[in-house]
Amino acid sequence: MNSPLAGVLREAWAMYRAHARHLLTLALAVYVVAAVVEAVLAALLGAVVGGFLALVVSLIAAFVLQAALVKAVEDVRDGRADLSLGETVGAARPYLGQVAIASIVSGLVIGVGLLLLIIPGLVVLTLWCLIVPVIVLEGASVFDSFGRSRALVRGHGLQVFGTLACVFLLTLVAQIVLNVLLLVLPAEIRGFVSGIVSGTLVAPFVALVLTMGYFRLRAAAGGTVGEQAGPAAS
Q1: In sequence order, what are the residues at sequence separation of 6 or more whose Cβ sits closer than 8 angstroms to the Cβ of residue 28?
Q2: DSSP state of 94
């Protein structure tokens, strides 16, 4: 029997190309707004206070983008974008707190696992890779999302890990190519531009893979594995 994730990278790439303008505009808007706010804070408040607040803004932007991209992917699954950029962000807004808490908790646990023994961190990363789609699409609570993600991944762990590894390698190659292309820019602005451009190009593809993977694994589980009653759980 084929894995539920067979061909998910091809499907994600096809959707990326078909809806590139919509998805990239969403990602670019979030990254540019965050970058401008961070630069203003650093300039007005100095390196220490401004830098700390800029980090907070960066984290908030990352959570907004994660939730919004999941909503955007759900929206374009039927072949068209029905929601505007503002409507997409608005639809994701109720889940930002849960996404932020779950992302911070999972990031800390995975980071510790990678630092200590590597393999436990990779295992946890695989089991919890669907927490954001679960929160945004099922309305799951923060801590329920961990169990729900684990239940969806169970039985398909190697395929999920292989998919994540492929995504990592593809994004690494894209980052290397981008850095080479940006060598023509002055060093002082190269990092700034690289962060915005790479994030804009990569984040939508990662969201596509994870969200389409979520839908495939949910279908493989019959849509009943501890499923939460949420706005998109039908």
Answers
A1: 196, 200
A2: G
pTM score = 0.84
Q: How far apart are CA 74 and CA 143, in angstroms?
A: 22
Residue with tokens 């436990």: 120
Please give the pLDDT value at position 226. Answer: 45
Are 149 and 110 within 8 A, CB to CB?
no
Supply the angle between the helices 131-138 and 47-76 in degrees, to the nearest 10. 60
CA distance 156 to 181: 38
CA nearest 69: which of 142, 164, 133, 135? 133
pLDDT tens digits for range 184-227? 888 777 777 887 888 889 899 999 999 999 999 999 887 644 44
Structure tokens at 9: 């990278």
Domain limits, the chain: 8-97+157-220
Burial of 103 (0-12, 13-18, 19+ CB in 10 A): buried
